[in-house]
């Protein structure tokens, strides 16, 4: 059976989960195409012998160019990892809707666009005797922590539950769940990664959209102080999972004969998976407001 071929989006930072996963799969003997908008940001991966493709996941022509490369070189794609994403944090009253749409383009619509474009090559991989795999990197923060609604809405369900029984309206998780069922007859397995805190470029504030509208509401005039209190970079990063450890677990799952449908990882995945779904909504509201850094600094107008 030929070696697997994988493409991973969002490998632009050495500390990113995408870069760590690219290395983990490469070391398992998978032929990996690491992608980012600029190849120069992936020099560490090039030094390890990985294949690099410049790919803007929001640009149709850029996506097709990546498809053409793999079709010419390999004729199939065994593993597709939709990892590219950006963060954004702001009070929803102050979010600029055009900027929010741009965030959704990257976090929600791009994974579907990339999957559509590579569908034929994924189907070809299924003809080798083993199923192709698509991994969509979502967020496990399904309960709408204060000031994180823009990012969370682009990644997770609008609702209280974590499993498939919870009705939902939106975003990457629902797209991923539906794709899993629709693509199963084509021998394409779809995995959703419910990701919590991992020490990556996004957590370290290197890939965050400015979401504020030009004329904010005025209710959060002291936002810099609120955000600084929320951030606690050193404390947050120190308590997060290591990207290399998460990547090693994902690489094993992606190359398993029977990969899971959902994977929870990061810190504290156990809390979001097993504990919070059992709490009444009123308790959840109290807990999330009480524990959210910065909420206590919001100034009520006179």
From TrEMBL:
UniProt GO molecular function: acylglycerone-phosphate reductase (NADP+) activity; triacylglycerol lipase activity
Pfam family, one: adh_short
GO CC field: endoplasmic reticulum; lipid droplet
InterPro entries recorded: NAD(P)-bd_dom_sf, SDR_fam
Keyword annotations of the record: Oxidoreductase
Gene3D superfamilies for the chain: NAD(P)-binding Rossmann-like Domain
Protein family per UniProt: Belongs to the short-chain dehydrogenases/reductases (SDR) family.
Name the UniProt record assigns to this protein: Short-chain dehydrogenase cctT
Biological source species: Vanrija pseudolonga
Taxonomic path: Eukaryota, Fungi, Dikarya, Basidiomycota, Agaricomycotina
Gene this chain is encoded by: cctT_1
Biological processes, Gene Ontology terms: phosphatidic acid biosynthetic process; triglyceride catabolic process
């Amino acid at each position: 059976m030929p070696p697997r071929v994988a493409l991973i989006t969002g490998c632009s930072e050495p500390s990113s989960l995408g870069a760590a996963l690219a290395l983990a799969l490469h070391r398992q003997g998978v032929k990996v195409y690491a992608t980012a908008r600029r190849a120069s940001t992936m020099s560490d991966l090039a030094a390890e012998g990985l294949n690099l493709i410049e790919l803007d996941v929001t640009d149709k022509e850029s996506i097709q160019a990546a498809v053409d490369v793999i079709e010419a070189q390999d004729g199939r794609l065994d593993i597709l990892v939709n990892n590219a994403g950006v963060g954004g944090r702001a009070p929803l009253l102050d979010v600029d809707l055009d900027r929010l749409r741009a965030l959704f383009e990257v976090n929600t619509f791009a994974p579907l666009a990339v999957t559509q474009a590579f569908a034929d090559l994924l189907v070809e991989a299924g003809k080798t005797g083993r199923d192709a795999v698509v991994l969509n990197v979502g967020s496990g923060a399904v309960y709408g922590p204060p000031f994180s609604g823009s990012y969370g809405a682009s990644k997770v369900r609008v609702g209280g539950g974590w499993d498939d029984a919870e009705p939902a309206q939106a975003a990457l998780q629902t797209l991923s769940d539906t794709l899993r069922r629709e693509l199963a007859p084509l021998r394409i397995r779809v995995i959703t990664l419910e990701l919590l805190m991992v020490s990556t470029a996004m957590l370290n504030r290197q890939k965050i959209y400015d979401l504020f509208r030009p004329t904010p509401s005025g209710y959060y005039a002291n936002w810099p102080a609120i955000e600084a209190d929320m951030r606690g970079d050193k404390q947050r990063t120190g308590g997060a999972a290591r990207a290399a450890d998460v990547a090693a677990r994902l690489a094993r799952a992606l190359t398993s004969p029977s990969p899971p449908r959902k994977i929870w990882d990061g810190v504290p995945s156990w809390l979001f998976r097993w504990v919070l779904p059992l709490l009444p909504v009123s308790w959840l509201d109290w807990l999330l407001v009480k524990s959210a850094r910065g909420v206590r600094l919001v100034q009520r107008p006179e």
